[in-house]
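Notes from the 1:1 (GR / supervisor)

We went over the backlog. Supervisor wanted to see one worked example end to end before approving the batch request, so GR pasted a single chain during the call. The sequence is below; no edits were made to it. Supervisor asked that the structure be written out right there so they could see what the output format looks like.
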Amino acid sequence: MKWKTKLVLNRDNMMYKLGVLSYKRKFCTLLIFGCLGFTTYTIDFTGYIKEWNEKISHFRSPRQIQADKKTFNNFEDNKYAMAQSAERLLGIPFVNIDTSNPYIPKQRIVHLDLKGAPPTLGFLKKFFLMIRNMGATGILLEYEDMFPYYGVLKPIRARNAYTSKDIGSILNYAEESNLMVIPLIQTFGHVEFALKHKEFEKLREVPASPQALCPNRNGTLEFVMEIVKQVMELHPNSDYLHIGCDEVFQMGECEICRSQLHENLFLNHIKKISTSIHQKYPNLQLIIWDDMLRHLSQQAMIEMKLGDLIEPMVWVYAEDIYHFVAPQIWEKYAIVFKTAWTASAFKGAFGETLYVPEARRHLENNLRWMEVMAQQGKLFKLGFNGIVLTGWQRYDHFAVLCEILPASIPSLALNLVTVTNGFFNLSLKTKLLSSLSCPQGNSRNIQFINLDSDPHLWEKLGRCMFPGSPVFRLMYRVHMIETEVIEYVQITTRQKGWLTAYNVRRNYSLPLRVDELTGGLPRVYHSMISVAKSAVDSMLGIFDNYTIAEWIEQRLYPYIIELEKIQNDSVTLKSIQNWPSRPLSIMKDLKRFGIVL
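Structure output shown during the call:
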């Protein structure tokens, strides 16, 4: 039995070997023919290439050359069209920028407007590191009343102002993130934070308005120089000081100034201020906003030697930059000044009461600046020094808060990445998303943003985890509940006919209908209260209690009060059991308008 098994095994083993041998022979045969075929193909292909090269070298006609060029141009056009298509898919505004050789500003400065919603030190530390990773090279600190003024200036200091120790920490955080710091002070217009106080009202240009300083009053120069002294004491290493001077709305109106030309008033004040600062700080370079210079004569600025005193910062926040600063103004500036700065915006430019910026408009503004800087920088002997991305927090000292900083970080990231690279397209997807700590997800997903359908970036960047991201997400909830409340109030008190101002004033309505109209009121009301509580939770650690309370009072409280009024009015209307016959009495207040019936 064992022998038979062994025989079978030996037979099977032999058959196996024969099969393997046959397989190997077939394989070798195929391999040989394959190699021969490949060699033949290679020889033929080499000959073909040689023949083609000979044709190119000796037999290409001008028509063939032209056809080849057309084919190449069509290929390039197709590539360009594909790039255009991708940008349209992302909602990126079209601006004529050469992405192969873009203009990139030397300095990319982020502006912090501290006169509203000043951030905590802990948040600023994280913020500085984040913007450095996005491409920022510095910060422009506009202190206004948040600076720890002392002595004669103590009255202008806000009750929640930073301390001297706080300023030191802010500067240390900036240094750790390798960010230069430029302090900004106001020395002509927008001095409301100081001139509103009794101690300094005598320096006003217009007695009833604290908007601007009178350049000719006794004490004005001393007041400005005291501000400069105190600010520079805490910024001894700063190479630049921005002295404001924008939007001097009230000039030449007081009894001292009204006989002088506005041009002379402005230039003389700038010269007096800048000369005094340079005498004390000879190595300090001064910057001013440019808007008041745009309509001044070139000759007057040259005679004043303005180019030796200051550098202009040309600011336009709209999309059409040349509409506000025409080519002839650039030519004038290039003759007067060796260099200049520019200023775009990432928030605080398109509405005094907005609570989240429209990123698409800000992106177009910054892209337009890249185009303009590439064109106009050649005019200046030293080119442009850089660009500042402004982020206004109030339109002036008395205005309400507009978009707060954490809610605007996606817009800042989009625009800072843009100016750091000189353009924005699909190739910067990873840079943008990683800078905001966003989940990358599917790397093949081309449409990582859509600025057309999602201009506030809530949909695409709502899951990112950057510092302050809970506040950004909160703004979407605010938007939704605000929309719902406005619609509810509109329908309840204006479109429907039982809870209008007339019904309430006359205590005249049908309780059944009032009940129907207020059926959804509790849900809407409690949703608004919930958002207000969430605002506190998301803003703690970023702002102080004063800022949180101010934001809630300005943004949510009016809706809460309006809903409570509807509730109270409905209770009153439903309490009426009997109603007078029509017609109701004529309203006596009509007589105030000359309507006597």
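Supervisor's comment: The mean pLDDT is 89.
Batch request approved.
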